[in-house]
Amino acid sequence: MSEKITEEAMENTENQNNTEIIRVNAFFVLHEDSFNEIVQSMILLKDYRETWKLVKKRNKYYLFFDNNRKYLKLWTDSKRNLLFYVGEVNNNLFYDSIEIREYNTGCVIFTDNSVQCNEKVIEFKNIAFFDLIRQIDYRLIDPIIWLLCTTLY
Question: For the whole prediction, is pTM greater than 0.70?
Fold first, then answer.
């Protein structure tokens, strides 16, 4: 099974001039879930302007926005497709650890469906993912790029 996953992931990856090009799909998934009152870890992602709150729960990342009333959940499936969901927070959350990270990816958005991160390009084949995120909340672009480039791909 893991060999099949690796083969499918490799089909969507190529190298050009020392740059890895990763081609994936992005899908909105109706995947509601409830947060427990105690969540394992929170990541505070800081740059010179803002601080974003991210929660990691198993292999999923929750990015809070709209004064922590809403979240964008991001994760990948076995084929390395990006899955996402927008939900609302209905209760208080408590964290038993907090990690502070600096936002310094050096990434550049090429088009509404691709981003270059150092030696790799992540390209969404089926939708203009960044344009869609801008419509949800344009302030989510930077932390999403950080997640894509440092954690998910």
Answer: yes
